[in-house]
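Sample pair:
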Amino acid sequence: MKIAILSQDASLYSTRRLKEAGEEQGHQMRVIPYLRCYMNITSSRPSIMFNGNLLEDFDAVIPRIGASRTFYGTSVVRQFEVMGVFSSNESQAISRSRDRLRCLQILAKAGVNLPVTGFAHATQDIDGLIETVGGAPLVIKLLEGTQGIGVVLAETYQAAKSVIEAFRGLDVNILVQEYIKEAEGINLRCFVVGGRVIAAMKRQGAKGAFRSKLHRRGKAEKITLSLDEKTTAIKAVKAMGLSVAGVDLLRSHHGPVVMEVNSSPGLEGIEKATKINVAGKIVQYVVTGSPPSAVQNAAQSNISDRVKY
């Protein structure tokens, strides 16, 4: 098969691993910087151009869309979909996952266990907002923040009130969530591909930190999930309409709770912690998930190449 990886940086670990894994399985892999593409929006022959050339012979695409480039990135994915090209994650599902509030609302509607969450913009009733999540300590997040930026743990009622008042002055949307103290700075990253959890790791935050982001000096190790944790992760991904995703869970007194569903999860941490070939499993899913015609065409192309050469 001929598969495009939509990524702005071919040197990134995740992009490199997907390309290597696909080539090891005998597929033609090409990295396409999606921001440099442009599209012809037409009903007769929709197309995508890159460096003056038509991108018209791909069987599938694997989107690796940066959070700050969601609008244009998903537009390119959607154009491939219009052209009948299979995508490991659909454009609409990526857009859902990137809207943090919409994501939580979809998960709540699907009955997925979440931390108690409040949402506000310019409310004058700060006391009421704090009480919505059971009071302090609580976590306050900027809705537009990413990778742990714009996240504050307010350990006291007065601290929470001060932070919310400060954020209100920035004219931003604010999420407040209950603080899962019993998680002790640990979260679980569950990697779901094609409706199955294929790998999982435990991430421990750096000393003195309540978050466990690896890029913020957190540590990771392989972990075995409980059936409830696996079920929760799969249910969350299904609710979002994703096929490839990372689900972040916390272990709480009322069971596993979902903190985030990531449609472009990094591969480096999970592969190094678990020693599992996650990139290879993503490529395998793309091949089996593609329409039969695409797989048949790819097989026929391989036969033609062998005859020709």
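The CA atoms of residues 1 and 27 lie 5 Å apart.
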